[in-house]
Amino acid sequence: MLYPSIDEMMTKVDSKYSLVVAAARRARALREGGKTDIKSPRSHKFVGVALEEIYEDRIIVTRGEE
After folding, report:
1. How many whole angstroms separate alpha carbon 4 and alpha carbon 48?
2. Above 60 in pLDDT, residue 30?
3. Residue 64: inside a domain, yes or no?
4. pLDDT band of 33, cuts 50, 70, 90
5. pLDDT given for residue 66 in this prediction
6. 5, 38, 40, 52 from 22: Cα distances, Å
7. What is the total count of domains within the chain?
8. Residue 32 belongs to some domain of the structure
9. What is residue 6's predicted lDDT score, i.e. its pLDDT?
10. Local structure of 50: helix, strand or coil
11. How far apart are CA 39 and CA 30, in angstroms?
12. Distances in Å between the alpha carbon of 49 and those of 17, 33, 65, 66?
Protein backbone atom coordinates (compact mmCIF):
# COMPACT_ATOMS: atom_id res chain seq x y z
CA MET A 1 0.00 0.00 0.00
CA LEU A 2 1.35 3.38 -0.97
CA TYR A 3 1.30 6.26 1.47
CA PRO A 4 -0.39 8.58 0.93
CA SER A 5 -2.83 6.92 -1.45
CA ILE A 6 -3.89 8.62 -4.67
CA ASP A 7 -7.48 8.80 -3.43
CA GLU A 8 -6.39 10.70 -0.32
CA MET A 9 -4.17 12.99 -2.40
CA MET A 10 -6.97 13.90 -4.80
CA THR A 11 -8.69 15.84 -2.00
CA LYS A 12 -5.69 18.22 -2.00
CA VAL A 13 -5.49 19.03 -5.72
CA ASP A 14 -7.82 19.55 -8.66
CA SER A 15 -6.23 16.92 -10.93
CA LYS A 16 -3.63 14.16 -11.01
CA TYR A 17 -1.57 16.26 -13.39
CA SER A 18 -1.40 19.16 -10.92
CA LEU A 19 -0.26 16.71 -8.27
CA VAL A 20 2.51 15.32 -10.48
CA VAL A 21 3.80 18.78 -11.41
CA ALA A 22 3.72 20.05 -7.81
CA ALA A 23 5.44 16.93 -6.45
CA ALA A 24 8.12 17.06 -9.15
CA ARG A 25 8.86 20.73 -8.50
CA ARG A 26 9.07 20.20 -4.75
CA ALA A 27 11.23 17.07 -5.16
CA ARG A 28 13.63 19.04 -7.34
CA ALA A 29 13.83 21.77 -4.69
CA LEU A 30 14.56 19.17 -2.02
CA ARG A 31 17.22 17.54 -4.19
CA GLU A 32 18.90 20.93 -4.66
CA GLY A 33 19.22 21.40 -0.90
CA GLY A 34 15.75 22.38 0.29
CA LYS A 35 14.74 21.39 3.80
CA THR A 36 11.53 19.69 4.91
CA ASP A 37 9.56 20.36 8.10
CA ILE A 38 8.57 16.70 8.42
CA LYS A 39 10.38 15.28 11.45
CA SER A 40 10.57 11.66 10.27
CA PRO A 41 9.26 11.18 6.72
CA ARG A 42 8.04 7.70 5.83
CA SER A 43 9.80 7.89 2.47
CA HIS A 44 13.52 8.34 1.95
CA LYS A 45 13.07 9.52 -1.64
CA PHE A 46 12.51 13.17 -2.56
CA VAL A 47 9.27 12.55 -4.46
CA GLY A 48 7.84 10.60 -1.53
CA VAL A 49 8.73 13.38 0.89
CA ALA A 50 7.17 15.94 -1.47
CA LEU A 51 3.94 13.92 -1.60
CA GLU A 52 3.89 13.66 2.19
CA GLU A 53 4.31 17.44 2.46
CA ILE A 54 1.40 18.01 0.09
CA TYR A 55 -0.76 15.51 1.96
CA GLU A 56 0.00 17.12 5.33
CA ASP A 57 -0.82 20.60 3.90
CA ARG A 58 2.75 21.80 4.39
CA ILE A 59 2.77 22.57 0.66
CA ILE A 60 -0.39 24.10 -0.81
CA VAL A 61 -1.06 23.43 -4.49
CA THR A 62 -2.81 26.34 -6.19
CA ARG A 63 -3.95 26.70 -9.75
CA GLY A 64 -1.76 29.10 -11.73
CA GLU A 65 -2.52 31.40 -14.62
CA GLU A 66 -3.13 29.67 -17.93
Report:
1. 9
2. yes
3. no
4. very high
5. 53
6. 16, 17, 21, 12
7. 1
8. yes
9. 86
10. helix
11. 15
12. 18, 13, 26, 28
Task: Say which amino acid occupies 7.
Answer: D
Whether residue 61 lies inside any domain: the answer is no
CB atoms within 10 A of CB 64: 7
Q: Is 48 left (phi over 0), alpha (psi -120 to 50) or beta?
A: alpha
Residue range(s) defining the domain that contains residue 50: 6-55
Instruction: Count CB atoms within 10 A of the CB of residue 18.
Output: 16
**Cα 38 to Cα 24: distance, rounded to the nearest angstrom:** 18
26: buried, middle or exposed (CB in 10 Å: 19+, 13-18, 0-12)? buried
pLDDT of residue 65: 58
